[in-house]
Write a structure and sequence with these properties.
Helix content of chain B: 40-55%
Shape of chain B: globular
Helix content of chain A: over 70%
CATH architecture of the largest domain in chain A: Orthogonal Bundle
Largest sheet of chain A: none
Strand content of chain B: 5-15%
CATH architecture of the largest domain in chain B: 3-Layer(aba) Sandwich
Number of helices of chain B: 19
Strand order of the largest sheet of chain B: 2-1-3-13-6
Shape of chain A: flat
CATH class of the largest domain in chain B: Alpha Beta
CATH superfamily of the largest domain in chain A: MetI-like
Strand content of chain A: under 5%
Structural class of chain A: mainly alpha
Number of domains of chain A: 2
Oligomer: heterodimer
Distance between the termini of chain A: 19 Å
Number of helices of chain A: 15
Chain lengths: ~300, ~450
């Protein structure tokens, strides 16, 4: 143990010399430098610029003067923003939860070898392959009151008495439904990949020890699946949090989300540019915090070495 | 780590080759990147054609006129129609993106009537007053000129359809069957007739219109407000929407659904859904733009024939009150940064000439902006709307309250009108909220 600690000490002190002194390591850094620069320019700079813009009263016609946090205050007092925030949070929680449970079920079901398994796996992916905009238009037609099959069925069954596309609550539920339809396959396949890594011997040993399926599921499957679960849930959470095209196309301006608020402020309106910008920074910061939460608190593995 | 020792231990030639390769590779990539950016920067300015943007050319009239312009070689450059989205909002978005960037190859822009007053302050379209003097302006319907004015200049030439105006279409045959001799004059009459005739004729809906949360919804609701005596802004640009008249207008708007004359779903219908419903024969009355008329007689669009259709002005609140139709329609403007100003103007001159306008009106069933064409018998025969709605189109069309920040105002109005229509808020709440938000917008605009 002392040898290891001594070597790590030496490593920390000589890290710089070791990295840049070695010609091969130095070459490696040079090779990474172009893509690093591109990422800085393409990704970092716009984010920084957006942040700076959100602290001014600029509009699309020109750069304005510094106003501090005024845009953020205006944003938090805007009912449209609060509506978008609540819609987005409800949408994220509901759709990710549903997708996780249904996806896990699908993954467990198609994990066993059966005839036609390859075909089933490919078929399961079909909704995921649709562009979101096409799916949104397609489902909107199904919810529409003149030609929509879902509106017709709901009216006949008597569970809905108003046009679905006119009610913000029903629209949100519809959007959750469409998102679950569309991305459950994605979650299912991620979890399936995680399931396949679990060696069969573990289950055999458990069976020999007399464990029933519930114990096998909760004590073997879930813990060993933790990595894949966290990856799938993080991806889906961040994607759902940033939802825009589904809400905009299906709701036709009736359904608000954080991203549609940004769009309306920055692209349609002329005076709401500041709050729209502030909302964009808000989305970035909170999404970042969500990702951080998953990695630090829930212990998601980001590379092979950390364990 | 054995690899490293192998690498340094092997012949020096191998390591140098790898280094050289990396150096050459890096230089090659950098060179390619530079070439790429240079190539991208070059294109985009001036393509040698007069690019004319407009929505889809459903009836082929634009294609015909553009071909004629090119064949007669009126300008040394060829004109080409660049199709834009059918939705006015989406088209506006696209234009805004291009114009903001400052480098667009568009020369002639087909503009919605509410755009000149928004584009002109941003210097995106040119002042055409020197080419389009007052003497030429007199030939057009006055309201179509006033919407294109900003600060002392005129920024667009009215085209067609312009003025687009809200009209009340009705199934004359169904009204005759029910023994009703003439169309409704007031909103209450419309409500009664819609309920009565739809029941007697077994038709699904009595009255349909465009009530969704978008620009068309604003047009619909404004007609109710205006015919009840209210208004959004007055001549001095004060916001006056918080009035009992405006609230009464919105109350009537809401009552159309409440009474059952119109289906609940109109609150999310746009032109597409409402026209499809009427063309299908599922409605007795519809409030729509003049372009609906072209569909009757075209068996692919609808089985309803023109003889079955009647047109009436928008109903009013009390008999004898003036009627108002919301002004819509399309005009032509020149993009401010275009390099081919002369040719662009030649194209506009051609397209808005009496002859070309006549042709487009006859093919597509639009209404012209030139006053003289309203007395033309051939046009009256080809597009009965011109004859049936002549008074409305010439005199009773009113423009929306367009200001520099109309985008924001429209967003507010669309949402409040839609909520009032659905009954989510009362008309008084709607007008009060609008009074606040619109005043705020007008203040910020100063």
């Amino acid at each position: 143990m002392s040898v290891a600690s001594a070597s790590t000490e030496k490593k920390k002190r000589g890290w710089f010399k070791e990295e840049f002194g070695n010609p091969e390591r130095r070459t490696a850094y040079y090779m990474v430098l172009p893509s690093l620069l591109i990422i800085l320019i393409v990704a970092f700079f716009p984010i920084l610029y957006g942040f700076v813009l959100s602290l001014t009263d600029s509009t699309i016609s020109g750069f304005g003067s510094f106003v501090g946090l005024e845009n953020y205050v205006e944003m938090f007092q805007d009912t449209d923003f609060l509506e978008g925030l609540s819609n987005t949070v409800i949408f994220t929680v509901a759709s990710v939860t549903l997708e996780f449970f249904i996806g896990l079920g699908i993954a467990l079901a198609i994990n066993r070898a059966f005839r036609g398994r390859g075909l089933v796996r490919a078929a399961v992916l079909v909704p995921w392959a649709f562009p979101t905009v096409i799916a949104a238009v397609m489902w909107r037609l199904m919810f529409q009151n003149q030609v929509g099959i879902i509106q017709y069925a709901a009216d006949t069954l008597g569970i809905i008495s108003e046009p679905i596309l006119s009610s913000r609550t029903l629209l949100l539920m519809g959007a959750i439904l469409v998102d679950v339809w569309k991305t459950t396959p994605f979650v299912a396949l991620l979890l399936l990949a995680g399931l396949q890594v679990i060696p069969a011997e573990v289950y055999e040993a458990a069976r020999v020890d007399g464990a029933n399926w519930m114990q096998r599921f909760f004590r073997i499957t879930l813990p060993l699946l933790k990595g894949a679960i966290l990856v799938a849930v993080l991806f889906r959470t961040l994607d759902a949090y940033r939802v825009y095209d589904l809400f905009w196309v299906m709701g036709n301006r009736e359904l608000a989300s954080l991203s549609t608020y940004v769009y309306e402020g920055v692209r349609i309106s002329q005076l709401q540019f500041g709050p729209g910008n502030a909302a964009a920074v808000f989305i970035f910061v909170t999404a970042f915090l969500i990702a951080l939460f998953f990695i630090r608190v829930l212990g998601m593995r980001t590379s092979v070495e950390e364990e | 780590m054995t690899e490293r020792s192998e690498g340094s231990g092997a012949s020096a030639g191998r390591k140098l080759n790898r280094r050289d390769f990396l150096k050459m590779g890096g230089a090659g990539l950098a060179g390619a990147a530079l070439l790429g950016t240079a190539g991208c920067g070059g294109g985009g300015s001036g393509s040698g054609k007069i690019i004319f943007t407009m929505g889809p050319d459903a009836d082929g009239s634009i294609a015909k006129l553009v071909n004629k312009f090119n064949k007669e070689k009126i300008s040394k450059l060829e004109a080409v129609h660049r199709e834009m989205p059918a939705s006015s909002n989406a088209y506006y978005d696209k234009l805004r993106t291009e114009f903001q960037a400052g480098t667009s190859d568009i020369s002639v822009v087909g503009v919605d009537v509410i755009w000149p007053k928004q584009f002109a302050p941003q210097n995106w379209i040119m002042d055409l007053s020197d080419r389009f003097p007052a003497s030429a302006q007199k030939e057009f319907i006055p309201v179509t000129i006033s919407v294109a004015e900003y600060e002392d200049g005129v920024f667009a030439v009215p085209w067609c359809s312009c003025p687009d105006a809200g009209l009340l279409y009705y199934r004359k045959d169904l009204l005759d069957d029910s023994g009703i001799p003439s169309p409704p004059e007031t909103w209450s009459e419309l409500e009664e007739m819609a309920l009565q005739v739809s029941k007697e004729a077994g038709v699904q809906n009595g009255f349909v219109f465009q009530g969704s949360n978008y620009e068309g919804g604003v047009c619909n609701a404004l007609e109710y407000i205006w015919t009840h005596g209210g208004d959004v802004i007055d001549d001095d640009e004060n916001v006056v929407i918080d009035s009992p008249e405006a609230a009464a207008g919105l109350a009537t708007y809401n009552r159309m659904i409440e009474s059952g004359a119109a289906p609940e779903a109109v609150a999310n219908w746009t032109e597409t859904e409402s026209s499809a419903n009427f063309y299908n024969g599922d409605s007795v009355f519809i409030r729509y733009w003049p372009s609906l008329y072209g569909g009757f007689g075209d068996t692919e669009t609808t089985k309803i024939k023109p003889e079955q259709i009647g047109i009436a002005p928008i109903p009013v609140d009390k008999p004898g009150n003036p009627t108002y139709s919301c002004l819509g329609g399309w005009q032509m403007a020149i993009y401010a940064n275009t390099e081919i100003e002369e040719d662009a103007w030649k194209f506009i001159e051609f397209m808005t000439s009496e002859e070309s306008m006549r042709e487009r009106v006859i093919i597509g069933g639009y209404d012209p902006s030139r006053k003289a064409l309203y007395d033309d018998p051939e046009i009256a025969k080809a597009t009965p709307v011109v004859k049936l709605a002549k008074d409305v189109l010439l005199k009773n069309v009113k423009s929306r309250p367009v200001t520099e920040y109309y985008g924001d105002m429209s967003l507010e109005m669309a949402e409040q009108f839609n909520s009032a229509l659905k009954g989510d808020i009362s008309p008084e709440e709607a007008v009060k909220t609008l009074q606040e938000s619109l005043s705020q917008i007008m203040e910020e605009a100063q």
